[in-house]
Amino acid sequence: MKITIIGAAGMIGRKLAERIAQTGAIGGQTVDAMTLVDVVAPDVATDFTGQRVSYAADLTEAGVAAKLVADKPDVIVHLAAIVSGEAEADMDKGYRVNLDGTRALLEAIAGVPDYCPRVIYASSLAVFGAPFPTKISDDFNLTPLTSYGTQKAMGELLLNDYSRRGILDGVGIRFPTICIRPGKPNKAASGFFSGILREPLNGQEAILPVDDDVRHWFASPRAAVGYIEHAAMMDTAPLGAQRCMTMPGVSATVAEQIEALRAVAGDEAVALIRREPDATIASIVAGWPRDFDTVRALETGFRAENSFEEIIRIYLEDEMGQSA
Amino acid sequence: MKITIIGAAGMIGRKLAERIAQTGAIGGQTVDAMTLVDVVAPDVATDFTGQRVSYAADLTEAGVAAKLVADKPDVIVHLAAIVSGEAEADMDKGYRVNLDGTRALLEAIAGVPDYCPRVIYASSLAVFGAPFPTKISDDFNLTPLTSYGTQKAMGELLLNDYSRRGILDGVGIRFPTICIRPGKPNKAASGFFSGILREPLNGQEAILPVDDDVRHWFASPRAAVGYIEHAAMMDTAPLGAQRCMTMPGVSATVAEQIEALRAVAGDEAVALIRREPDATIASIVAGWPRDFDTVRALETGFRAENSFEEIIRIYLEDEMGQSA
Hints:
Chains A, B: InterPro entries: DenD, Epimerase_deHydtase, NAD(P)-bd_dom_sf. Chains A, B: GO terms for molecular function: oxidoreductase activity. By secondary structure, chain A is of the alpha/beta class. The first copy, chain A, folds into two domains: 2-176 and 221-246, Rossmann fold, CATH 3.40.50; 191-217 and 250-291 and 305-320, UDP-galactose 4-epimerase, domain 1 (Alpha-Beta Complex). In chain A, 40% of the residues lie in helices and 18% in strands. Chain A is built from eleven helices and 14 strands. In chain A, helix 1 (11-23) packs across helix 7, helix 6 runs parallel beside helix 8 and helix 8 crosses helix 11. Chain A is globular and about 60 Å long.
């Protein structure tokens, strides 16, 4: 089968491509050809033994979407997006990339005769806005409070409608906050959730800008790739008309993150966390969801970690070369 | 103040324009200028004593939206839409008019400096899809099962985001099924809800294609105009980020409709209803909502009828010239 990954240069896209290169398959199905696309040519999965094509392309440019679907990939993974902060700062760009880009892809698929690919759409918890119940259920209303969340919610509605019409066979994945993100600290408001673990595990100081009782929803990068692998080959019939789901994850407080770090890496790692309250970050994070009841995703076979310790051990295995 | 009505040739647009012509005001505010636009030039409210402009224009054509907002109307009522059946039959046209047309209007408003008009957006119960609880609450999820409902839900999300950003001050109105629609029978699946009352009131036979226990959500054309009048001048602060609401109405079964007809017009009117079951219509209507708990709309001042008898008496007053 043929798979095309749009947004393949991002963290999840890279890991997905590398996983496919490593296993030669997705969801148990052999992958013969893999096309990797991003606004910069993705330089990953070069050891893939099947046919591998990689190029730079922007979904929002005329003709690009049609080119992407011309060879009828069986599975299309659509990860390309402008992130939350940039979509808020540049409204036009956010709508152009996150809404028009997605729609261009779906319209291009509609234009190919006798074709109904599996389309995996990266959505976000940002489709939900406060006020929240303690635990957010699968039928919680779409109430985005950012332009990014609005665009992702509109994409979900499109995915549902195009699936209902039989133009494509969509699965929408609302990713938890991915933790521990590998690499350098970034400026995202959520960055500290990874930073307070990643930096100490690498012997460096990390800053904690919020209170220890802040709670949020997490999964590992490995779980994120796992969602896509499952979505690629799952039976979509049980999803009915509602194709988009919040993914399972681990609800944890900052205090629980820190205790998991202590269990895995000891007091000396925890001592590297420096508390430096930041009212701005605290107020942003206060509007984020804390916990979910992901019955639909669990019943249809999606899995994540069971504890924050497991999330940390996955980082040690996947990013620091420690054996399981 | 200046008001612009887009979709002014439709049933609700005409009645709204005529009401403004009659009272010279909306929501207690004097209307100095009224612009009426539709794909055919609206020929209504010709007795309006203020400045009245009427022309044919299509929001989906380049430059039209910018022209509509160039004179900075204080209130814009956006009623223009492709209806459900046509949006399902012609997918491109539905998305072009219902989604792109709405977006063009909002974008044009964003392009006018120092401008933040009240925008009243006609949404629909079609943003909701089965399975339903017995009574649908204000926080029921957006689960459209038609392209029309998808487009209206996407428009709601846009209205919320553009309002949150301070580009406009939106109010989204999800209309109940309007009953009794004046005029001739039409081919809409919902047509019989008006037909079984309107035709007998005019001494004609009507066909009832569904069972007597079918329940649905109704309001009169007068109530529909009333929602817009209220939305034009209401305080939107209590709405917060969620600008779209299901409007109050009357939940009634077909049997209750018929008993109301009997109370108002007697047995001879009821005898004109002929039962002719239609499995296709019955199955479409089976997927429709039956009852709503419209707390938000009621708390923010929207009103409708309190009984089906009242709905019938309004038809007699407004369409058959009977005095109250």
